[in-house]
Amino acid sequence: MLSVAEVPILNALRSQAARVGCRVVTSRSFAPGFLWGAATSAYQVEGGNYTSDWWVWERQPGSGCAEPSLDACDHYHRYRSDIQSLANLGFNAYRFSLEWSRIEPEPGEYSRAQLDHYRRMLEACHEHGLTPIPTFHHFTSPRWVAEQDGWANPATAERFAHYCRVAAAHLRDLFEMAITINEPNMPPLLGYQDGIFPPGLRDPGARQLVNATFIRAHELAAEAIRTETDVRLGLALAMVDLQPVDGGEEAAAALRQVREDVFLDATSGDDFVGVNAYTRHEVGPEGIRAPAAGARLTGLGWEYWPQALEACVRRAADVTGKPILVTENGIATDDDSERIAYVTEALTGLRRCIEAGIDVRGYLYWSALDNFEWNHGYAPKFGLIGVDRVTQERTIKPSATWLGAIAGRGSL
Ligand code: IFM
User: Fold this and answer.
1) What separation in Å is there between the alpha carbon of 373 and the centre of ligand 1?
2) What is the 3-state secondary structure (H, E, C) of 49-109?
């Protein structure tokens, strides 16, 4: 830790080093080339995704959705200025997703206009010096896929891989790194076991089957994308710091197996593993326990637990031995200073992972914008950039400026 008097000395050293093209590395620095950015997903920010299964789900009686997504953040039309804002803040990477239902609205019918839209988004990232990290699937699928039994139909894996191949062929010169599937472990859990995502089933058996379809889809998609282009690929896994309590070791191990390990095992052919981490769950012999009475909670009702990032990165690296990219980490809060406190602690833990020798390639905050938080609607505020729900006007939050400055200088 530096004293206040030492800070100007370090800053002077940094400026001198920058003038001669070097960087001062302190114990709080991240390697040059470290990816610093933020993430979004198409459905949560684009608006007007009528051809997607979620558009139907939001309106389905009994789905429990708080409100429809409608125009979301109109990012479909405003992506240029949003990308420019991220670059101006100091970031060097942007992760966003391609909406499969726009690109293939009917089976086998591909929209050149929509593919061109994503070309323009990738080009905008390059124009602003951001490394684009497209994600080929982030929770939503075309309506026609849902009508054909969705992800419970093993054939969905092949259909998904075909779309990936077509999209990769169209975009191949514009990206070098990509995510096949965001959180392939969540639709099986939330949609097929917990019933709060489409198709709203409560059937643990279906969850296992859907896990298998997602794993197959990831493998086939990686193969399909690699047929078209030589890019670094991985999936982004939703991880939780699962902590056994009161003899819950066996239950925690069983949960890790079905939620995480089957997916981590499927990364053997990948270039890196994407880690999405937010919180912890204490696990007793009976299963996951609700946060203890009086525990500090975030705007989504999750326990405030920034230490989760370090625990999950360590576990993903231990299990797979692969480089790690933090593909999501953040907090839903109306108090932006709480966001800064949360991320400070998460990044401090990430530094410890690096010091322990883990190859961490980047940190992408979730999310760039206050966006549509699925069944919760627009109430939870994860964004670095606020969005006025009526005018779509953007407001840069202090946390965005703060994190952008860390990105710019590459150290905490
Ligand atoms: O908003 C989601 C995102 O779509 C997937 N990961 C978790 C985020 C917060 O719930």
Assistant:
1) 7
2) CCCEHHHHHHHCCCCCCCCCCCCCCCHHHHHHHHHHHHHHHCCCEEEEECCHHHHCCECCE
Atom of ligand 1 nearest to the CA of 182: 5
- Banded model confidence at residue 6, pLDDT cuts 50, 70, 90: very low
What atom of ligand 1 comes closest to residue 238's alpha carbon? 6
Q: What share of the chain is helix, strand, coil (3-state, %, to 5)?
A: 45, 20, 35
Q: What is the CATH number of the domain that holds 355?
A: 3.20.20.80
Domain span at residue 92?
Answer: 6-409
pLDDT score, position 29: 87
User: Is there a contact between 322 and 273 (Cβ–Cβ < 8 Å)?
Assistant: yes
Q: Structurally, how many domains does the chain consist of?
A: 1
Is there a contact between 22 and 32 (Cβ–Cβ < 8 Å)? Answer: no
Q: Does the CB atom of residue 46 touch ligand 1 within 6 A? A: no
pLDDT at 13: 52
Question: CA–CA separation, 353 vs 310, rounded Å?
Answer: 6
Asked whether residue 1 is assigned to any structural domain, the reply reads no
Instruction: Among 327, 373, 375, say which to mutate for ligand 1: greatest number of ligand atoms within 8 Å of CB.
Output: 373
Residue at 127 is within a domain: yes
